[in-house]
Amino acid sequence: MALDRTSGYDMLVQISETELNDQLATAFVAGGLIPPSMTLPINTGGVVGTATLLFGTPVADLDRPRPRLGLTLPFANSQFAITSPVVTTLAPWAERSRS
User: Fold this and answer.
1) Nearest to residue 26, comparing CAs of 57, 55, 53, 54?
2) Over the chain, what is the mean pLDDT?
3) What distance in Å separates the CA atoms of residue 42 and residue 81, rounded to the nearest whole number?
4) Residue 95 burial class via C-beta count within 10 angstroms: exposed 0-12, middle 13-18, buried 19 and up
């Protein structure tokens, strides 16, 4: 009888988006899920350098068509260092907010 209410599963668990984001934030602070920073080599269109991204707390978005989940990984105080053809650094470099 219980299987009729759980679509054949033995147990059904619901987790709110707030709880999911709290768990993501805790995992991020603990350093177990996503690294706090990342350095990426860039070599495209004659431009050579590195992009250093300093990540903020990730945010999950469940308001997507099923079965999708959105994950936003914000970054701030980052930089793009160009080593060729002309040495320059663009900093601070931040994610553009979407409205």
Assistant:
1) 57
2) 84
3) 9
4) middle
